[in-house]
């Protein structure tokens, strides 16, 4: 089947029968089907056949949607399936005006049976549509791979996988990851010219920035806003660049001449064309885009460079002026700081900058290269990996500029890809240390189904608070993607619209923008449900604009007021934009905020919001009108790079509420709106300067009034929202966003990083800010919970997905106490049996609370290993399986059914707590460097052979003792692996003298091989050769129960031989050790401990059996 050809019914049915559906199973027909409802888009349905084994029908739907209204057509198709009594179908969507392009979709719904009969209810839920976009001009790689080459479908599950966006994204990312691993060690950016060492330090971030910019441009290409010629190797070689030969030709010496494509094409596209108006303001001549001519243009990054590299420079300019719009928004501002000689992007004609920039042409155009990536992946199987240039990778896949939702997904790469690419590439980049591993940054990309659920629940909670709790069933209809009619009055719809418009939403660790984008999508969806024509939304915005323009603090001129009203009219003009554009634009301006400590994350969040606006603008061919693209808003006052956890230090009392301060604050708030709306370079510069003035005025006034210290005032005055390279050391919502009363919703997936990591660096940073949840052994996400609570409005709601360790772990006691005392927990979902983050070693939960009094009524649910698919319809799962619990203490928050809770209470009443059994529990030996101190039998024998005297041999033999690891311990016993510990102990003060290494020459000679690493380790005694202090050293010789810290089942062994254990084990000392070992090894204890008490579940269904549990 040729998927890059126009649709032909006969050919497509033949493909289904002969190649795709189960053999001899497809019954062909051509039966007209009447639509069960009045439709807006679909006008003709034909049943083309059915598959008996799959219980699936095939339909062809003809539609007359001009703007490809995916959501509207999906709803009509879902309704068709319901009327036909089918839960799944294959549907071909064909537009009426042309068969050149069409969609091939797999559609599913869940039909509900009446409880009292076999009659189907008049409702359905969990609708899903997955589509391939086929026809002329599409990339065939993906449909060929999953529809042609994989053979016939064997089951419905197989069919789902063929239409899986997740499978596609994984395939794309693997190719991109291999490319990144290849080029990150090749390319170089200048950075600070006088510091060659910083190239490696910042190279990873520069590579990630290049990838995300290029992918963003690729999305623009889907709107025909970027010339295809810019990515056509042969065209560039024949028409644009001198001596262009992008074949793979690695060299030991960097040759700047090999970076022609990046410099001449991409840099000029990024920093000059997309960042520069085509005409002067108010004029029609295409004069603004040209090459830099003289030194007077030295610092003008909006002018093109490298004219000498072009065969025909004017052709390049003409190609751009034919399709490339001015985007505004600071989106492609060059990040070079020329005054400081810091060339992050390297967009310069300076010789030393060009010589320091190396982005070879072959990384874009190489057809296929075999490279060794084994060191990068730490995998010997990666010695021979096929990689190709990134443009060749991008050309293999279809891209869609419209964001997918959990309910309607095109089997193409959508803008969410920007977020996934960023978060996954972040696995190789730690912004603090520039070292490797995602777990160090704590970043995990949240699946869109989880985002959708958390967004829905947060919005429902917000509407219940602001409009009324009694309308919750109606709110549920609004957030759903079914066609169930609401029973809202016009007045109630207006109240909901106002509640949405006034809703302030913050993601305090927004990363690449998954939650802010998800929130925007769902707010747009709700507005579409209550105001499909946009009339009421438009009227409300105009009324607000008129009201605000009369505000004494704004003093808008008639010209400014009229310009703003015209701007609103243009936003709603459906000859210029799709209806969703006006919804998105004003929701972004008024509702959505994001903070992240990484400036590159903020840039990517902005990219996704820009794409969401571009997708709903109707393009034209007129460069004077910027090809129909309204210059994008400036999001500097919406997304900021800052440390959320460090508040601005203020003196007692409110933030200086004197009349002078209030006036400045109101002016600042209005200036933020003016910056957001500024569309010309001149206007933006004027308001940018005005904001700086106001910041200084406010800082001075607050310092003079005594509300801020001089240092804090300086922080306020010096913070520059327009510096894309900087991340503020503090966060203040009022100062940065103009949000005084707090946020209605705080939502997100904060990082997971232990505060004691990196020698307690984070613990030292945050210990003095008064966090009630702070404990040095805790995790940073606990502080984010409290910080989120701090910035909430009274009764506002917070919804986070985090590690679930706080629920039971000892370090979570302060966090549980904080929740119990200061919040009203409403929903708690424990994913203890499900790996939400596929590549992350973390078990998660979702908590939604409000900043209000604890009512002792929390809907709780725990998902086990058999319920992995629950995230596909999480609301239904929670509704069906929830239990109400009173979570009002700092004890472990364990989710139990009523019967389990009753059993637990009986156990507690009848039993004696383990702590009252006169026991001691100790961890095994911490060496600080096991490779040196824990040795094999062969190494032990070698050391003993090297002893010079019988006396030394005897001392050494006694010092080297057998040791167990956690994995050696079994239930009721252990399998010793022949390992020994060199017990160079540090002694016990007053009881046992420490070991002097000079008395053990053979051991010293052996340890000297590791002396450099031994000297640097934290866990050491008086000398690098000694182990750290261990006050219970002599207890290892006592009868004891030993057990691993992490295990899938209860594995307790009894020992009286005096064997040692390492840090992955614990030992229990008691006169009743043998009795306790038998009890603790029982299935009864295992079930009770794992299910009802304070065990901590880890990934792969293992549990933590530590002394604190």
Largest sheet strand order: 14-13-12-15-16-18-17-19-20
Report mean pLDDT, rounded to a whole number: 87
The main β sheet shows up as: 9 strands, mixed
* Rg over CA atoms: 32 Å
Gap from first CA to last CA: 60 Å
Number of domains: 5
Number of helices: 39
Residue share in helix: 25-40%
Q: Strand-residue fraction?
A: 15-25%
List the helices and strands and how they pair.
Blueprint: H1 9-20, E1 26-33, E2 42-51, E3 56-63, H2 70-84, E4 88-95, E5 101-113, E6 120-135, H3 141-148, H4 156-162, H5 165-183, E7 191-192, H6 198-222, H7 233-240, H8 260-273, H9 313-323, E8 342-343, H10 351-356, H11 362-365, E9 369-371, H12 374-377, E10 385-387, H13 390-396, E11 408-410, H14 416-425, H15 438-441, H16 448-466, H17 472-479, H18 490-501, E12 505-507, H19 514-530, H20 535-549, H21 558-572, H22 579-590, E13 592-596, H23 599-614, E14 639-641, H24 659-677, H25 681-704, H26 710-718, H27 733-737, E15 743-748, H28 757-766, H29 780-790, E16 792-803, H30 813-822, E17 824-830, E18 844-850, E19 858-862, H31 874-881, E20 883-885, H32 898-910, E21 920-923, H33 930-933, E22 934-936, H34 937-945, H35 950-959, E23 960-964, E24 969-970, E25 973-974, E26 979-982, H36 1001-1007, H37 1011-1016, E27 1040-1044, E28 1046-1047, E29 1053-1055, E30 1060-1061, E31 1065-1069, H38 1073-1080, H39 1083-1092, E32 1096-1097, E33 1103-1104
Parallel strand pairs: 3-4, 6-11, 12-13, 12-15, 13-14, 15-16, 17-19, 23-30
Antiparallel strand pairs: 1-2, 2-3, 4-5, 5-6, 7-8, 9-10, 16-18, 17-18, 19-20, 21-31, 22-26, 23-26, 24-25, 27-29, 27-31, 28-33, 32-33
Pfam families: Eco57I (PF07669), TaqI_C (PF12950)
Protein name: site-specific DNA-methyltransferase (adenine-specific)
EC number: 2.1.1.72
């Amino acid at each position: 089947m040729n998927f890059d050809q126009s649709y032909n019914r006969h050919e497509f049915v033949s493909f289904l029968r002969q190649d795709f559906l189960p053999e001899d199973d497809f019954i062909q027909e051509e039966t007209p089907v009447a639509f069960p409802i009045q439709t807006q888009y679909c006008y003709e349905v034909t049943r083309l056949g059915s598959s008996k084994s799959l219980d699936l029908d095939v339909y062809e739907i003809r539609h007359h949607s001009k703007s490809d209204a995916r959501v509207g057509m999906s709803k009509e198709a879902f309704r068709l399936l319901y009327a036909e009594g089918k839960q799944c179908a294959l549907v071909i969507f064909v537009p009426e005006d042309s068969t050149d392009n069409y969609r091939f979709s797999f559609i599913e719904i869940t039909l509900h049976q009446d409880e009292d009969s076999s009659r189907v209810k008049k409702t359905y839920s969990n609708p899903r549509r997955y589509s391939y976009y086929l026809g002329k001009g599409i990339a065939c790689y993906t449909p060929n791979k999953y529809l042609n080459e994989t053979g016939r479908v064997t089951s419905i599950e197989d069919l789902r996988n063929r239409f899986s966006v997740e499978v596609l994204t994984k395939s794309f990312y693997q190719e991109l990851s291999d490319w990144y691993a290849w080029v990150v060690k090749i390319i170089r950016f200048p950075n600070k010219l006088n510091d060659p060492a910083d190239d490696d330090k910042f190279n990873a971030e520069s590579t990630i920035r290049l990838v995300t910019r290029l992918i963003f441009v690729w999305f623009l290409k889907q709107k025909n806003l970027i010339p295809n010629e810019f990515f056509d190797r042969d065209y560039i070689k024949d028409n644009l660049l001198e001596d262009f030969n992008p074949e793979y030709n690695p060299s030991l010496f960097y040759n700047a001449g090999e970076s022609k494509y990046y410099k001449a094409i991409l840099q000029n596209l990024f920093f000059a064309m997309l960042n520069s108006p085509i005409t002067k303001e108010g004029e029609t001549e295409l004069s603004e885009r040209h090459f830099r001519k003289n030194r007077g243009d030295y610092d003008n990054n909006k002018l093109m460079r490298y004219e000498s590299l072009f065969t025909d420079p004017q052709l390049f300019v003409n190609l751009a002026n034919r399709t490339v719009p001015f985007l505004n928004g600071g989106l492609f501002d060059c990040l070079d700081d020329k005054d400081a000689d810091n060339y992050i992007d390297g967009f310069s004609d300076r010789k030393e900058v060009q010589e320091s920039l190396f982005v070879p042409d072959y990384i874009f155009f190489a057809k296929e290269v075999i490279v060794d990536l084994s060191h990068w992946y730490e995998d010997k199987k990666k010695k021979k990996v096929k990689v190709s240039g990134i443009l060749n990778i991008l050309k293999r896949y279809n891209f869609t500029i419209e964001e997918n939702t959990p309910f309607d997904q095109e089997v193409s790469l959508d803008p969410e890809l920007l977020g996934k690419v960023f978060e996954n590439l972040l696995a190789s980049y730690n912004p603090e240390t520039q070292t490797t591993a995602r777990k160090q940054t704590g970043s995990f990309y949240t699946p869109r189904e989880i985002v959708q659920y958390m967004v829905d629940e947060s919005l429902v909670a917000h509407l219940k608070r602001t409009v009324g709790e009694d309308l919750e069933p109606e709110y549920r209809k609004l957030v759903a993607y079914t066609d169930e009619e609401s029973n809202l009055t016009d007045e109630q719809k207006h109240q909901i619209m106002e509640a949405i418009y006034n809703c302030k939403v913050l993601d305090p660790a927004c990363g690449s923008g998954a939650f802010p984008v998800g929130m925007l999508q769902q707010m747009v969806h709700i507005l579409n449900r209550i105001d499909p024509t946009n009339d009421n939304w438009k009227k409300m915005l105009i009324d607000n604009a008129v009201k605000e323009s009369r505000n004494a603090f704004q003093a808008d001129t008639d010209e400014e007021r009229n310009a703003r009203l015209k701007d609103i009219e243009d936003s709603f003009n459906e000859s210029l934009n799709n209806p969703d554009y006006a919804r998105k634009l004003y929701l972004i301006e008024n509702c959505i905020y994001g903070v992240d400590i990484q400036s590159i994350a903020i840039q990517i969040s902005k990219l996704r919001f820009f794409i969401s606006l571009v997708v709903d603008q109707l393009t034209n061919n007129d460069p004077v009108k910027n090809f129909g693209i309204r210059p994008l808003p400036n999001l500097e006052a919406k997304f900021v790079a800052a440390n959320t956890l460090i508040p601005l230090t203020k003196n007692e009392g409110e933030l200086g509420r004197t009349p002078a301060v209030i006036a400045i604050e109101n002016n600042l708030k209005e200036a933020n709106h003016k910056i957001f709306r500024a569309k010309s370079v001149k206007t933006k510069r004027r308001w940018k300067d005005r904001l700086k003035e106001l910041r200084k005025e406010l800082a001075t006034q607050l310092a003079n009034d005594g509300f801020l210290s001089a240092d804090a005032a300086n922080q306020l005055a010096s913070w520059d929202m327009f510096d894309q390279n900087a991340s503020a050391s503090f966060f203040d919502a009022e100062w940065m966003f103009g949000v005084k009363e707090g946020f209605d919703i705080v939502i997100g997936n904060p990082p997971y990083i232990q505060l004691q990591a990196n020698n307690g660096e984070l613990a030292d940073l945050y210990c003095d800010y008064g966090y009630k949840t702070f404990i040095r052994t805790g995790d940073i996400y606990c502080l984010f919970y409290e910080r989120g609570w701090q910035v909430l409005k009274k009764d506002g709601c917070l919804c986070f997905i985090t590690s679930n360790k706080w629920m039971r772990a000892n370090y979570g006691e302060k966090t549980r106490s904080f929740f119990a005392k200061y919040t009203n927990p409403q929903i708690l979902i424990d994913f203890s049996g499900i790996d939400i983050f596929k590549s992350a070693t973390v078990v998660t939960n979702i908590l939604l609370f409000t900043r209000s009094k604890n009512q002792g009524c929390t809907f709780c649910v725990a998902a086990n290993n058999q319920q992995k698919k629950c995230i596909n319809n999480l609301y239904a799962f929670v509704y069906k399986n929830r239990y109400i619990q009173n979570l009002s203490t700092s004890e472990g928050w364990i989710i139990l059914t009523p019967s389990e809770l009753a059993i637990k209470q009986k156990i507690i009443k009848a039993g004696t707590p383990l702590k009252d059994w006169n026991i001691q529990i100790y961890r095994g030996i911490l060496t600080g460097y096991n490779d040196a101190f824990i040795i094999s039998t062969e190494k032990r024998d070698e050391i003993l052979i090297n002893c010079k005297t019988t006396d030394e041999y005897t001392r050494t033999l006694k010092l080297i003792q057998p040791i167990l690891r956690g994995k050696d311990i079994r239930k009721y016993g252990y399998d010793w692996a022949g390992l020994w510990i060199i017990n160079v102990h540090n002694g016990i003060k007053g009881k046992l003298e420490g070991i002097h290494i000079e008395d053990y020459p053979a051991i010293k000679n052996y340890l000297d091989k590791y002396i450099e690493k031994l000297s640097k380790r934290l866990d050491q005694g008086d000398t690098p050769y000694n182990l750290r202090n261990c006050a219970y050293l002599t207890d290892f010789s006592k009868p004891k129960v030993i057990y691993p810290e992490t295990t899938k089942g209860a594995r307790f062994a009894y020992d009286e031989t005096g064997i040692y254990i390492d840090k992955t084990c614990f030992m229990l000392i008691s006169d009743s050790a043998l009795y306790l070992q038998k009890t603790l090894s029982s299935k009864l204890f295992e079930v009770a401990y794992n299910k009802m008490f304070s065990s901590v579940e880890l990934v792969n269904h293992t549990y933590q059996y530590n002394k604190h549990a």
